[in-house]
Design a protein that fits this description.
The structure holds 2 protein chains of 2 kinds. Chain A is mainly beta. Chain A contains 2 helices and 17 strands. In chain A, strands 2, 4, 5, 7, 9 and 10 form a 6-stranded mixed beta sheet that branches. In chain A, strands 1-3-8-6 form a 4-stranded antiparallel beta sheet, with no helix packed on it. In chain A, strands 14-13-16-17 form a 4-stranded antiparallel beta sheet, with no helix packed on it. The two termini of chain A are 29 Å apart.
Chain lengths: 283, 155
């Protein structure tokens, strides 16, 4: 493989391996979570283009929520047509404008207007905001048609969260089946999380391995969004925890470093713990 | 004069705190497109994410500690203006990320599957992706291009 790569580089010559920086293409989406109240029925995001080239953006809404697979990997499960049992807001919220060209250094506000069904029940409804962006077409230099050149244009899809709240909303989370397992050179912690109430649970999960002397030897932390039951995994390098017996303490708090408190539905902290024996490393 | 100086001094002192209060946002910068450059018919061209200066380079800037999921949509071929095709392939180590924008400490990952990472305390991570172009011997000259998309999702 290395030989093949070296051969390719040698044949391609200096022009091919020189930095192929075209024009930085960029878009900033703020805020990453939009909360719309039923009384105002409106919200917005700002798209900012800090780059030196115009960026074409399109905005759409899509239903989706995080799910975990059998290994505990968390993925976004999206649905074009969610079943009626899902609290989707994607079908009745419109974005204005849906398409725009954002010039360098300029900001574009995209407004969301909700037209919910008249009989909408009190609860939180969910959607994802998809901002697709690509560099606007630029005039290309006349290509050298005697050569074969290849490149890939890039489209960026920034996917953020929209929450629509009607009436009183509440949220909490419970834990079950907290366990650990050693896989190769990793110590994997898993815990099942079940949301309760009529809103998604947004918060932070922390885990600490505490020795018999009361000292924390390793810890992990992850911002979480629990919309439906998930069973995520948290991986630590095995060599970060000396062999021995520990208490694993897991805590979930409705706090996020990346989100303002006003965005979060508050709930009491939840704690769980188990005893863990970390085996000696195999040579 | 003195009040103006005091105001200036106060603004200087307050500047870091004011910067810290900026609303959270998520930014994805495309620093570089994936360029296979000039190809030779019948010779595979591989761009490893760590080694090549022609790989696509993305910068993701968001709230410190936030988890972002990366999903690439990768083409299996690119098309030429004259109608020809060049096959592309991506492997388990075709992508990598770095919190220091360094080719030394980057961590490889498979761009063919969703991948999640946690933004470091400075909120910035650089993602690289390479791949392999497999031009056939009979390929006609010209410019070949295609589209690659990266979806960045916050949780």
């Amino acid at each position: 493989m290395i030989k093949r790569f070296a051969l390719a580089l040698a044949l391609l010559g200096p022009a091919a391996i020189s930095p192929a920086v075209l024009h930085a293409q960029s878009v900033t989406v703020a805020p990453p979570v939009v909360v719309i109240d039923h009384r105002s029925r409106g919200g917005s995001i700002d798209l900012y283009n800090p780059s030196s080239v115009p960026v074409e953006v399109s905005v759409s809404l899509l239903y989706g929520y995080p799910v975990s697979d059998s290994l505990g990997n968390v993925d976004l499960n999206t649905m074009e047509k969610p079943p009626a049992s899902e609290p989707s807001a994607a079908g009745w919220i419109d974005a204005y404008p849906r398409r725009a060209t954002v010039l360098p250094g300029q900001k574009q506000t995209v407004r969301f207007l909700a037209r919910p069904p008249a009989d909408l029940a009190d609860r939180e409804y969910w959607s994802r905001i998809v901002v697709s962006s690509k560099a606007a077409a630029l005039a290309l230099a006349t290509p050298d048609t005697t050569k074969i050149t290849a490149s890939l244009n890039v489209e960026i899809r920034t996917i953020t969260t929209l929450l629509y709240r009607k009436g009183t909303v509440s949220s909490s989370v419970t834990t079950s089946n907290l366990r650990t397992a050693v896989h190769g050179d990793s110590l994997i912690t898993r815990v099942k999380l079940d949301p309760h109430g009529n809103a998604a649970w947004l918060g932070t999960l922390t885990g600490k391995f505490v020795g018999t002397d009361g000292k924390t030897v390793a810890e992990f932390e992850r911002p979480m969004g629990v919309y439906h039951a998930v069973d995520p995994s948290f991986i630590l390098p095995l060599d970060s925890i000396p062999p021995g017996r520990y208490h694993l303490h897991v805590e979930l708090k409705s706090e996020r470093r990346d989100l303002p408190r006003s965005t979060l539905v508050q709930s009491p902290a939840v704690r769980d713990s188990i005893e863990v024996a970390v085996p000696p490393r195999r040579p | 004069m003195r009040p103006r100086f005091l105001l200036f001094a106060l603004l200087l002192i307050a500047a870091p705190a004011l910067r810290g209060q900026s609303p959270p946002s998520l930014r994805v910068n495309v620093l570089r497109q994936l360029e296979f450059g000039s190809l030779i018919g019948g010779v595979d061209a591989t761009m490893a994410p760590a080694d090549s200066k022609a790989t696509a380079l993305f910068e993701i800037i968001g709230p410190a500690g936030a988890t972002v999921q990366l999903v690439f949509t990768l083409p299996d071929q690119i098309s030429g203006e004259g109608g020809g095709k060049v096959a592309l392939s991506f492997g388990p180590q075709s992508a990598a990320y770095s919190v220091n924008e360094s080719s030394v400490d980057n961590i490889p990952f498979d761009p063919r599957a969703p991948f999640s990472l946690k933004l470091p305390p400075n909120g910035r991570v650089v993602v690289m992706i390479g791949g392999m172009a497999r031009p056939s011997r009979q390929l006609i000259s010209g410019r070949y291009s295609g589209n690659l998309s990266l979806a960045v999702t916050t949780q």
